[in-house]
Amino acid sequence: MARKAALNILFVLTAVGAGLYASRAPWQAYREQQAAADEQTQEMRESEKRRADLMREEARVRSTVGREELARANGYIRPGEERVAGTP
């Protein structure tokens, strides 16, 4: 009886070991795919952030205040205005 129980335990342990060994490759593929998906998700988030930043910048430049700021940054002075000493 003890010998039969030992053989059953050995059989179960062998089956578990074989199952773990056989499942090794799919888990490796899963980890690789998960890493690639994580990388793509990060790139997508960065692209969306850049897109939102560009949309805000475009809205600012298209506004009258934004156009005036941009013109003054490039040296525009309204007729009748004078530069304050010490400013570029």
Would you kindly provide a brief summary of this structure?
This protein is mostly helical. The chain is built from 3 helices and no strands. Helix 2 packs across helix 3 (64-73).
Descriptive overview:
The chain is an all-alpha fold. The protein has a domain at 38-75. It is built from three helices and no strands. The protein has helices at 2-22, 24-62, 64-73. The chain is rod-shaped and about 110 Å long. It starts with a helix and ends in a 15-residue tail after the last helix. The mean pLDDT is 88.
| H/E element sequence | HHH
Distance between the termini: 98 Å
Query: How many β strands by DSSP?
Result: 0
Q: Can you tell me the overall shape? A: rod-shaped
- Count of alpha and pi helical runs: 3
**Alpha-beta classification:** mainly alpha
Our estimate of the beta-strand percent is under 5%
Major sheet: size, sense and barrel closure? none
Low-confidence stretches: none
Helical residue percent? over 70%
Rg from Cα: 34 Å
**Mean pLDDT, rounded to whole units?**
88
Give a quick set of tags describing it.
single chain, 88 residues, mainly alpha, rod-shaped
Topology summary:
Layout: H1 2-22, H2 24-62, H3 64-73
